[in-house]
């Protein structure tokens, strides 16, 4: 599928009611009505606090693809992209009819509605659902496992979001999108199952390189059987981790949303059109591994040491605020920043003239009697 075609589909099918970072159950449940009669919508369980968890299922093919988003409640970008994609399949455009013919797709658009409502990574019991794959101690984990058992997927798409700290390798390029074909054993063996996942990731990366060259990374594949991706991969189901990261100036993740949308369509098109056997997996290893080399802001060339600022995401009165916090004062010459402030060899102070300290939350700094905003 051509990038030009996919970009056009995004432009005409972007779900206008979903915007920004704070996406929760009430936002998506209001969208279900338009899918009735086209897709199968089922309530498959409830969260700790009794909020409903749904699946959306469509397509008539024999290749089963299971997706789930917002396992971590504050990772909402992929949820937006999922509903953009659903709008395309709702109209059964000619460009994607072969996907509906060859694939059956089941999506849990929001696995952790309690965490989404509170804008937290964890569920209401303060458990990371992505470390609960074996114990299944939480109702949301049981829901996912039950859907997996009932649907019997041939592919799993594990949809997440990542922080702004990641670079795509060791260069000054933010990891806007990251992938992983999780390990399925302690030796991180490149198994036939992983090769299939790697092949699909390689195709998505090739498409993304046309638009965001050198801004795609892969995660470290250390094995943890308690992680859902590793657990499903260990059951010999090809599992792909998607991570929505940072694009320059895009703290609402609206540009990243489009790249996730594109990646979903590219992967589905490839799976529908090919017998994916893992033979073409080697391009996966051309993708650089993520490194933690970015801060949101670095103030360089101060009278003393560099100053790193990171945004803390806070839910305040129904919207997400990005609160600047001083996280490091050191020589940061080996790090990058999404924004650089040049102090021109002057000292840097708080707005009231006091000294900056690690842990300080401040909106402005003073440099040579000039006020600089640290807000996003």
Automatic annotation (TrEMBL):
Cofactor dependence: Zn(2+)
> What keywords sit in the KW lines?
Carboxypeptidase, Hydrolase, Metalloprotease, Protease, Zinc
Q: Which Pfam families does this entry report, sorted A to Z?
A: Peptidase_M14
What PROSITE patterns would the database entry show? PEPTIDASE_M14
Say which domain of life the source belongs to. Answer: Bacteria
Keyword Protease carried by entry: yes
Q: What is the name attached to this protein's record?
A: M14 family zinc carboxypeptidase
Organism classification, top ranks? Answer: Bacteria, Pseudomonadati, Bacteroidota, Flavobacteriia, Flavobacteriales
